[in-house]
């Protein structure tokens, strides 16, 4: 959650890759494929969307790590036939703590630092970026929704909140109206056949660039294991959708990708070079955007903290924090006060009513104080297809025209589960803010006597240290370590 946030939803997933009309490679009978290069129109549309995507996904990382990702991305992108000039592609390493990658027409390719950190060699990075470029080259988004426009890219965050946080449950219908800008993006999940085609295109690009084509299968396996681990840590019912939600079911695609790549080793992986180049990459939340640590969220820049209810988990995004559990869902975000807390709350409720829908309004707005912060809240009961739902907006006046609020959903009569969270919001001292440190990747060299257990014990987590370490490094519980081998650990 950025310091300069506004009322809005967050990306715990991603913009649907290749939303705009994309050029393609088309076969002409038995002749060589005809290549349609990136057009001036593509470049114009991509250039308009690019700054919006940067803003919504944490901004661009700069420096040597980003330069390395850019180099690899351009090398693989030119294999697609969209352009033979590396200068026609803009490859960005995003400062985002979610596993994600995507591409849009005009030569724009993106990957998050979190997904990059999950990879174990350069060929895997090239494979993921090649997969995304493949979606654009094959015009998959155009096939799924020909009318998609730039405003839908910008509106992705709202649609993701209603889809990922609310989900297909008792809150689903209400969620269709929540933050409705760009809601059609929910239909843009790629089909299985499109995913397989993008995998195959990515593998083809790997072969052309001289990489080991089996890297597509190994990175898909890492993604599947990471998703399974997160589901285990949060409870299977609370699995957070990530890259695999816009790119469904990586586990089922691993064997297909390996079959297409072939089982014989051929091509480079550049494992050690890759690990050396990503050493020191921020892992998980960036303190500049706030940090989730268990049930606590702390923002050292904005100087506040709050605690999620017991049994709930949080996911931090660029503009807001989502809170999810079996008995309700919530979001924390902020905006300019501009007037009274009453009018602020009314405005937030107004965003929950889509075009042509019955306006949602609280029955009353009550004033209170939370840890010395002026606050107010309102509750509205909405009839859902599965029964009545309570919607709560609890807002706080932080002074200087800045407000923050929770928007929470629970089945009728169940919103009290969020009361401890509403009452936990507090301002923090400079000393407390200064104690918040980022987690970073530390690439270490295995020494004689090192074991899976001894290295994983150094992971900067209080739980599942060994499981996190194994997934991060693509290892199994019976893997053998070799002195001189490079591995990743996460430290403060």
From TrEMBL:
Annotated GO biological process: proteolysis involved in protein catabolic process
Coiled-coil blocks: none
Keyword Metal-binding: yes
Annotated signal sequence range: none
One GO location term (cellular component): membrane
Membrane-spanning residues: none
Cofactor(s) demanded: Zn(2+)
SUPFAM superfamilies: LysM domain
Top-level division of the source organism's lineage: Bacteria
Keywords from the named record: Hydrolase, Metal-binding, Metalloprotease, Protease, Zinc
Pfam families: LysM, Peptidase_M48
PROSITE patterns listed in its UniProt record: LYSM (PS51782)
SMART domains: LysM
Limits of the LysM domain: 442-489
Molecular function per GO: metal ion binding; metalloendopeptidase activity
PANTHER family: METALLOENDOPEPTIDASE OMA1, METALLOENDOPEPTIDASE OMA1, MITOCHONDRIAL
Protein name: M48 family metalloprotease
Origin species: Novosphingobium silvae
């Amino acid at each position: 959650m950025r310091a300069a946030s506004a009322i809005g939803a967050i990306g715990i997933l991603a913009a649907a890759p290749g939303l705009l009309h994309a050029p393609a490679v088309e076969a002409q009978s038995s002749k060589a494929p005809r290549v349609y290069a990136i057009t001036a129109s593509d470049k114009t549309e991509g250039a308009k969307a690019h700054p919006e995507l940067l803003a919504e996904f944490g901004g661009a990382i700069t420096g040597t790590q980003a330069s390395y990702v850019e180099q690899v991305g351009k090398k693989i992108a030119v294999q697609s036939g969209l352009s033979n000039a590396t200068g026609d592609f803009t490859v960005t390493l995003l400062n985002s703590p979610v596993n994600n990658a995507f591409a849009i027409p005009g030569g724009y390719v993106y990957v998050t630092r979190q997904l990059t950190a999950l990879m174990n060699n350069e060929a895997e990075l090239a494979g993921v970026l090649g997969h995304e470029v493949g979606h654009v080259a094959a015009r998959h988004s155009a096939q799924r929704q020909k009318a998609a426009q730039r405003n839908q890219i910008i509106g992705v965050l709202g649609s993701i909140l209603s889809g990922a946080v609310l989900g297909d449950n008792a809150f689903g219908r209400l969620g269709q109206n929540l933050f409705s800008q760009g809601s059609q993006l929910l239909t843009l999940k790629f089909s299985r056949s499109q995913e397989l085609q993008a995998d195959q295109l990515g593998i083809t690009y790997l072969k052309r660039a001289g990489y080991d084509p089996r890297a597509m299968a190994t990175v898909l396996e890492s993604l599947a294991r990471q998703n399974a681990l997160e589901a285990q840590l949060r409870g299977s019912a609370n699995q957070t959708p990530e890259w695999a939600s816009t790119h469904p079911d990586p586990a089922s695609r691993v064997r297909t990708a390996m079959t297409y790549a072939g089982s014989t080793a051929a091509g480079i992986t550049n494992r050690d070079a890759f690990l050396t180049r990503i050493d020191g990459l921020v892992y998980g939340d960036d303190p500049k955007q706030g940090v989730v640590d268990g049930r606590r969220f702390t923002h050292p820049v904005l100087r506040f903290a709050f605690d999620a209810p017991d049994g709930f988990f949080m996911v931090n995004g660029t503009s807001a924090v989502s809170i999810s559990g079996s008995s309700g869902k919530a979001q924390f975000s902020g905006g300019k006060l501009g007037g009274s807390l009453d009018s602020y709350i009314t405005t937030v409720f107004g965003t929950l009513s889509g075009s042509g829908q019955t306006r949602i309004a609280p029955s009353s707005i009550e004033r209170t104080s939370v840890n010395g912060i002026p606050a107010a809240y309102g509750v509205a009961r909405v009839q859902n297809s599965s029964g009545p739902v309570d919607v709560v907006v609890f807002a706080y006046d932080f002074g200087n025209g800045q407000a923050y609020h929770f928007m929470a959903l629970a089945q009728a009569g169940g919103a009290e589960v969020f009361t401890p969270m509403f009452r936990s919001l507090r301002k923090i001292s400079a000393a407390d803010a200064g104690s918040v440190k980022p987690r970073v990747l530390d690439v270490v060299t295995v020494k004689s006597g090192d074991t899976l257990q001894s290295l994983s014990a150094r992971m900067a987590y209080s739980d599942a240290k060994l499981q996190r370490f194994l997934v991060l490094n693509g290892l199994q519980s019976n893997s053998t370590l070799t002195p001189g081998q490079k591995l990743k650990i996460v430290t403060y």
